[in-house]
Amino acid sequence: MSGVRRNVNVALLSDGPEAVGMGDWVLIHVGFAMSKIDEEEARSTIEFMETLGEHYESELEELKSSSIE
Prior knowledge:
Layout: E1 25-29, E2 32-37, H1 39-50, H2 54-65
Antiparallel strand pairs: 1-2
C-alpha cells in the first residue's frame, strides 16, 4: 500500500475459489492474506484510509520505516 512492500503469507488462500495469484488484491492482517477482494473494493478502502488524514499519514510512515527493501 502506498509503496510499502511486505512479505505476506497467502497459504490461507492457496486453493479453491479464493486462490490468489500475482496482481490480485487481498486484505491483509498481521502478515496473512485473509481474503481476496476486487480492485474496486481495494481502491475504495485506500480512498477511505486517505480521508483519515494525519493519523493515516503517521501510520503510513511507521509502515514505511519497517518495510522490506
